[in-house]
Design a protein that fits this description.
Two copies of one chain form a homodimer. Chain A has 246 residues and is mainly alpha-helical. The first copy, chain A, has ten helices and three strands; from the N terminus they run αβααββααααααα. In chain A, helix 1 crosses helix 3, helix 4 runs parallel beside helix 9 and helix 5 (126-145) runs antiparallel to helix 9 (193-211). Chain A is globular and about 55 Å long. Chain B binds a DNA duplex (30 and 30 nucleotides) through helix 5.
Chain lengths: 246, 246
DNA sequence: TCCGTCAATATCGTCTGACGATTTCGTGTG
DNA sequence: CACACGAAATCGTCAGACGATATTGACGGA
């Protein structure tokens, strides 16, 4: 819904939001990429909720793109596990049960620890230190503001900064951050205030270790962060993980 | 009462729904998926080499599908880092330089170690043990046969078995196995016989630890395996990593 | 009344054809 | 021989169409 749909066809594409992730030769994002980003953003902001049914005709109208481009985007998101496609029945925002979330954490943790170690080894310039500290401060601010969409955006930016500084671009490809956004969106609304604040404080510790060029501490800080998240997941009530009865 | 009866009817149909869903889940792959698999298989077999130019008209003719479906597949492969798309200039099979390969190994290693640990913890039935041992034996046979395509296929099957037994499906999503196929295809032709045999022997050690339910040894075996691969990469001559053409 | 059968509808997967935008390259001209 | 210009090649996107399948609601019989 974020699109005010001034649009019509052949928009000027002056939409230069400087998507830094583009490893492409500076070309504009494709229509499918814009749709993917819009949907991911919608998930972070709560406009799309897990389990929601996505209709192609509806989305093509609302996003002002053709069915082909939309299908490319949905296919991409399905490959990343963000939506699930059912033949003849449409696309749904994926829902994660408790086991999937814990599995996801087990998978993400070693990658995050590697990313933190590399960032700690590689954080040499003032600009890099500044960037990490700003990212951490931004997360903190969003948490205090209780703005979920903003928090999830800035959490993403934090990881992006960490990976960027670490200098291992394969990590960016492998880390299932979008899928994590999905699970964060699911639990963010029902975890307790204490859990939320505790979680947010973890980023500050990781940042401290990174800017001090202490890979061992950075690794440990990430481990603690994930241990805390696992504890939170175990404490959540069953209704946090909707079982889909299509 | 009315609502109650309605729900009852739905419940009664639950069995049928499950059945239908199960059947549906095993449905045919989409055209785009078939194309992706064909291209990946072609890379493993050597029919497509890194740096090769992929023309849409040519591929649509050879694969017998429409441009739309082909583009879906190429987009998918591009997201996985298998091909790179250049606006107005076509798609190319990606090439990996030495740093990218080492970064890829750094990223894959912790995931492979996690997968091996989980498999070792979870390998409880004879069928599972048999599957792992068969996968390892198959790799060995393909190595001795010097059949590169077969070796890469079976290497993939080995990882699939390990992940399957481990029971963490998020791992399957996150592990950049296809991208590793790419790098394997690049180096497989020029590494020495000793390197090749040494590498193949690693799978046997990993398998042994897994079937003996020894997660610590499994983790160590994977680590050694990756250390060996890194050594091989460092020993390779520069021409193994083509600098970007054009 | 309740249940099974059957047609209408909704939705997806795929194909074909078209148009504009941009790069690449061959050819003609000075 | 250098340079400019136009044709060809190629990609990104769109619109419309067709068949296949699931869902749904109506109809008739026990």
């Amino acid at each position: 819904m974020a699109t005010s749909t001034k649009k019509a066809r052949k928009s000027a594409d002056a939409d230069d939001m400087m998507d830094a992730k583009a490893v492409n030769d500076g070309s504009v994002a494709s229509a499918a990429d814009r749709v993917s980003e819009t949907i991911l953003q919608g998930i972070r902001a709560g406009a799309f909720v897990p389990g929601q049914h996505l209709l192609e005709p509806d989305l093509t109208r609302r996003l002002g793109i053709s069915r082909g481009s939309l299908r490319e985007a949905l296919k991409h998101l399905a490959a990343a596990g963000i939506v699930t496609l059912n033949r003849f029945r449409g696309a749904y925002i994926s829902t994660l049960d408790r086991k999937s979330v814990l599995d996801l954490l087990d998978t993400l943790e070693p990658l995050a620890r590697l990313g933190a170690r590399l960032a700690a080894e590689n954080c040499g310039t003032d600009a890099q230190r500044k960037r990490m500290q700003l990212a951490a401060a931004n997360i903190d601010a969003a948490t205090k503001e209780r703005n979920r969409g903003l928090y999830l955006d800035r959490r993403r930016q934090f990881y992006d900064a960490m990976i960027d500084i670490g200098g291992n671009m394969e990590l960016a490809r492998a880390m299932p951050l979008s899928r994590t956004d999905l699970f964060r969106a699911q639990v963010e609304t029902i975890q307790t205030e204490r859990q939320r604040m505790l979680h947010a404080s973890g980023y500050a510790k990781i940042t401290k270790a990174i800017v001090e060029n202490d890979p061992v501490s950075a690794d440990k800080a990430v481990k603690k962060h994930f241990d805390g998240t696992r504890k939170t997941i175990h404490e959540l009530p069953p209704h946090a993980f909707p079982s889909l009865e299509i």
